[in-house]
Amino acid sequence: MLMRGLKRNHSGTYHPIILHPVRISEMHVVSSTSDGLVIGAACCLAQLRDILMKAVTELPAEKTKTYRALLQHLRTLAGEQIRSMASLGGHIVSRGSSWDLNPILSVGKSVLNLASEDGERQILLNDRFLAGCEPADINAKEVIVSVLIPYSMKDDFISAFRQAERQKNALSIVNSGMRVLFRPATDTIVDLSILFGGIGSTTLSARKSCEKLIGRQWNDQMLNEACKLVLEEIVLPPSASGGKVEYRRTLLVSFLFRFYLEVLHGLHQMYPFRYAELSQEKMSALGMLQSGVPQGVQIYQGTDALLVFKVLCRSGCPDTAETGNTAFSNERAQQNLVKLPGGPQYK
Ligand SMILES: Cc1cc2nc3c(=O)[nH]c(=O)nc-3n(C[C@H](O)[C@H](O)[C@H](O)COP(=O)(O)OP(=O)(O)OC[C@H]3O[C@@H](n4cnc5c(N)ncnc54)[C@H](O)[C@@H]3O)c2cc1C
């Protein structure tokens, strides 16, 4: 049993063997192979982010599409404290329904390198693993030593989506990883994977819908069919836990539509003479949310002076810091006291 912390106190189970990943160097090593990056399973998510950021700057763009999709969430997922504690292996094994990285790792065809007393083996981090299906799952005695995250290919398109109440420190309501591979220099689908988190008790795959769409061209008819198939396959009963059923169903289709547009835009960029540019209206749907440093201003009526407390909050501070309440208790918050005319000098 591999113990790392967060779940340690929740079960009273006795574990005869406890592995501490900090002492197992293989679980921290990062190496580059001809297939992709192999990342030690004990690396925390903040390290994973830094490794991928470096890879994205050093490698050709066509190889790093999965890495860029992962980075989209690694910059905002939970908060910096969680990202500095949670490990890649723990994230994968715990398989929370709303965990954001598993759908992307799965569509990116990641491979888990496992080890146990019985030896070593590799398994795919696919939808069957995420659903905990027996032959595709990790055994009780195995640990994930490292994870191979393959390079993407030229005709690959990979996207990540997440809808949450806030950009940081909020679990996804629904998230998704989507990938399509086209026959070289065409828009004919050779492989398609679509996974959703936040819908069921684990990450769900629209496997059957994807299989039916193989061989189709990437056009409006395909999109209509895809939406219909996905809504039939990814069932969300009216009594589903977590509520917001209509909203979550709408998100399934919205993510699909956005992926459709992203891919059309990508096709145009790769083959401008073959695929038309998106209209301005459609392009506007591709706008990215920018995550900046939240800032707020509070005005207090003091006894002998009117002070403006300017609160500048860095990482680890909830997005609601504009209210100031949480910012004052956060040791990383900086406060600048600005003197207004007529009051005493503060700094
Ligand atoms: C407050 C909070 C908010 C969060 N918000 C988000 C979010 O918004 N988005 C998101 O994606 N995730 C979120 N997470 C989940 C987080 O990313 C971690 O994935 C999750 O908490 C698992 O933590 P851990 O890595 O410490 O695993 P642990 O709790 O240490 O491990 C989980 C399980 O996996 C086993 N395990 C760990 N490593 C290995 C290994 N190498 N091989 C085999 N078994 C292993 C452990 O024995 C344990 O049974 C959040 C977590 C918390 C606590």
UniProtKB/TrEMBL annotation:
CC cofactor: FAD
Family matches, as InterPro entries: Ald_Oxase/xanthine_DH-like, CO_DH_flav_C, CO_DH_flav_C_dom_sf, FAD-bd_PCMH, FAD-bd_PCMH-like_sf, FAD-bd_PCMH_sub2, Mopterin_DH_FAD-bd
GO terms for MF: FAD binding; iron ion binding; oxidoreductase activity
Pfam families according to UniProt: CO_deh_flav_C (PF03450), FAD_binding_5 (PF00941)
Annotated ranges, domain FAD-binding PCMH-type: 1-154
Protein name: LOW QUALITY PROTEIN: aldehyde oxidase 2-like
